[in-house]
Amino acid sequence: MSDTVTELGRVVLEMRGVSKQFPGTLAVDNVNFQVKAGEVHALMGENGAGKSTLMKMLAGLFSDYTGEILIDGEPVKLTSPMLAKQAGVAMIYQELSIAYNRSVQENVFAGQIPTRGKVIDKRALRDMTVDVLRHVKLDGKVDPATPMKNISQHESQLIEIAKALKDNPKILVMDEPTSALSTEEVETMFALMREVKSKGYAIVYISHHLQEVFDIADRVTVLRDGKLIDTCDVKDVSKEDLVEMMVGQKMSDFYKRTDKSVGDVVLEVEGLTHYGFVHNVSFQLNKGEILGLAGLAGAGRSELGRVIGGIDRMDAGVCRIGGTALKTKDMCNMVRHGVAYLTENRKTEGLNLRLTARENIFSAIIPKLSKGPVYFPRSGEAALDGLYESLNIVPRDKNLTASNFSGGNQQKVLLAKWMATKPKVLILDEPTRGVDVGAKKLIHETIERLASEGISVLLISSDLPEIVSLSDRIIVMMQGHLIGEMHKEDGFDESKVLLAANGERSVFSVAY
Amino acid sequence: MLHINAVDSGANAPASIKKSSFSTIANRFGVFLMIGALFIVGAFASPQFFSASNFLNILSAVSILGMVAAGVAFVIYCGKYGDMSVPMVMAISGVISVELMRYGLVPAICGAVATGAVIGCVNGVVIGKLKVNAIIWTLAMNFILEGLVRWSYKGEQIYPDMATESTYQTGFLLPLMHSLDSHIMEIDLVKRAEAFNGLAQTYFFGRIPLMLVVMVCVMAACYFVMSKTAYGNQLKVVGSSYDVGNMSGIRATSVVMGAFMVSSICASLAGVFITSINKVGAFYVGQGYDFQAVTAIILGGMSLAGGRGSIIGVFGGVFLMGLISNILTLFGVGTFTQKMISGAIFIVVVAVNARSLRKLGRDDA
Q1: Which of A161, B93, B98, B117 has the fewest CB atoms within 10 Å, counting from its CB?
Q2: d(Cα A435, Cα A246) in Å, to the nearest integer?
Q3: B253 vs A contacts (CB less than 8 Å)
């Protein structure tokens, strides 16, 4: 790979006044974007700001963009992925393109497998793969014949990078490469990126994590609503500056909490067990309370939420709403009794991406909008307007297909769907995962508002600042058991919650 | 500031929005464009093409198909690709109606529809609750029912106006009837058979066949159920994405079950009429209606992915099928050739649908 070294600091990629129109929106609006050899250039913006569209343009996924793209000073037309690849653009997507049942070597050389006559040349394939893996220092660690499904997320990510590097690209685009990695793995990734950039590759780095941008990037470009806001050196800006550029307003009191009274018990869970995931969990949720449910990944938080929401079965225990024990594993019944479970898997379990926003929001309340067997969607229109207004869903078009909304607005539509059921108990599973700063703020305000209106919220979140600032009380799960409870009046902060999630019992107000 | 490229549509921003809505219109009403085109072809084919009697001919020729397609449309709308048990549901409903005809027309029809409902219920439970692949299961069901009918009748067909001692040894309900009521041989079968066979020959105003009226009523009822009821809208949610439907507090399994019941009930109604046309109850009467129905439905703009399209489109698809066969006949194309052509249409339609399915897949990503 050393033969691709370009003179550091030279402009490798230049996009001049590029635009891309989608039906109803101008996703990228006259953007100028420059990347130099040997730099990590962070591309930031809220969801829907146009980052992904800009990068898809670079990857050759659109044939109808306008403006000029220059690579190494040469104007190029990137109208197909093939042309983009030839021009030296390599993409590493957020969702990896992996055939899980095939081996590492077959994935790396998919489409270019060496053959001897008509037969696959296994030895050559293996040697070539080891060569490629050397780029990312996995040559001794990963056997090229291992099926991809047995490779960890972290290593898959690295293999994907190796695969991109094998074609000697000039520009490497990484879309949220760290979203599924642990802290040490992120460090390894960054070390690799530093090495790669020192060899003269230009790296475009898309991320939502502010800290990562300061750790790895040399320059940063911020987009908002499809427009270029600014490009600057990372060392010249602060986090607050960046957030202001992204959101377009001052970051102030992100999490404000007004004291409010908490009422009687609404949801009572006793000895709830879902074999293998949740064991003998008991807690109470009061009217108008936001109860945080903390824990590490795999602690059984989502599983607990799903049992109460009526999706998974309850093997033992009782679940009472307002004193009456309910038949669980019947979501229809749970919804009717005022329990709403907002899933963490927005795209597969939450929203029907092919239906319109209206159909999605009404999908849980079809019986409520009907008289007898006849369905009257008009009768929900006023409530729908209210939800659109209070959640500021953009664009305002109710007939827009859900897949055409940005991630943040999809999440708002999903929240609106469950708010429309007028729940007594709202279970929110990672309500702001993968959502931009603006939408996150709005969702937080909405959660607070709902609680002050008397709805009880069970908040499952891995976002520590979120759970700490919103919750009135936090219960902590570990390995399927409820291990303790922390009260607001005793004071909790992010570090205490993290300690608690790791099993440190001294921080609890009440340890079980 | 708008920056629009001229390569694709050669138009400005509003036009590009228009273009997308044009393709929606083409998707939704494409079948009516095709019908319009065929009208022009038909005008060249024969001077008699544009006559009321020819149009009545076309419509009555597809009445049976229309009833079947309206029901199968529910199965496709809920994302289950098709109901392969339709041919035998038609056949078994037909023979049941011939058997029950001894007690009058109303019991005959009710019995047939009840049979359809039971089969649909079994299909629905297995596919909805046990999550068995719909095509495989209904295909298997079709074979089982075929075996059942042929075994019950010892391979014989059953004629409405004929019954001997030996007839009462075969069939589903005949032996039971015989043992309960020894005077059953004295029923004036010829008269009853006339009434039954007359079902297919009943006309309103001297020229509009009863079958056609029933087909239109079935279509109208299915349209109402699919578009205007809570059930129809839940079906849409479940059809577009089963998991999301299930996680919206909808009893998805019951919704799927309902779709298969509607399909079988419609097929059994069609079975009564086709038996009445043929004047014979036999295992083969419904052959080919499964694929023809799917063709008509997809021609009508319903997507195999589920949750898209409408009964109005299905009606268009059914009419288009009739129109094609009518025009081919007017051009003097034989039945066998017509079969090949309809097979080719099926392949093309499914291929086009598969293409748009793939596009959808990309939308969802």
Answers
A1: B117
A2: 13
A3: none
Q: What percent of chain B has pLDDT over 70?
A: 89
Number of compact structural domains in chain B: 1
Residue B364 exposed, middle or buried by CB count within 10 Å (0-12, 13-18, 19+): middle
Cis peptide leading into residue A23 (ω within 30°): no
Report the pLDDT value the prediction gives residue B3, as an integer from 0 to 100.
40
Give the start-end residues of each E strand in A243-309.
265-274, 278-286, 290-294
For residue B169, give its domain range: 50-287
Domain ranges for chain A, please list them: 2-247, 265-352+423-511
Residues of A in contact with B237 (CB under 8 A): 352, 355, 359, 363, 366
For residues A477 and A449, the answer to whether their CB atoms sit within 8 Å is no
Min Cα–Cα distance to chain B from A24, Å: 7
Chain B residues whose CB is inside 8 A of the A29 CB are 1, 3
The model carries a pTM of: 0.75
Which residues 191-250 of chain A have a CB within 8 Å of chain B?
none
**Residue B244 distance to chain A (closest CA, Å):** 5
Q: What are the tokens at A190? A: 């960054």
CATH class for the region spanning A265-352+423-511: alpha beta
Q: Is residue B292 part of a domain?
A: no
pLDDT single digits (tens) A324-369:
888 878 889 999 999 999 998 888 899 998 899 999 999 999 999 9
CA distance B255 to chain A (A): 12
Residue B163 lies in a domain: yes
Q: Which helix (H) or strand (E) holds A317?
A: strand A316-321
Nearest in space to A464 (alpha carbons), one of A442, A496, A428: A496
* A85 interfaces chain B, CB cutoff of 8 Å: no
Contact A447, A294 (CB under 8 A): no
Domain A2-247 shares a fold with domain A265-352+423-511: yes
Name the phi and psi angles at B95, rounded to 5: -70, -35
B27: contact with A, CB 8 A cutoff: no
Confidence band for A415, pLDDT divided at 50, 70 and 90: very high
Type of residue found at A114: P
DSSP assignments along A472-506, one per residue: SEEEEEETTEEEEEEEGGG---HHHHHHHHTT-GG
Q: Up-side HSE of residue A37: CA atoms within 13 Å toward CB?
A: 17
Instruction: Give the DSSP H/E element, type plus range, for residue A34.
Output: strand A25-36
CATH superfamily label, A2-247: P-loop containing nucleotide triphosphate hydrolases (3.40.50.300)
**Partner B, chain A 351-390, Cβ-Cβ below 8 Å:** 351-355, 359, 362-364, 366-367, 369-370, 373-375, 377
- Smallest Cβ distance to A23: which of B7, B20, B247? B20
Whether residue A104 has pLDDT greater than 50 = yes
Q: Residue A94: is its pLDDT beyond 80? A: no
> Any CB–CB contact under 8 A between A113 and chain B?
no
Tokens of B56: 């009545």
Among candidates B3, B240, B244 on the partner chain, residue whose Cβ is nearest the Cβ of A30: B3
ipTM higher than the 0.85 cut: no
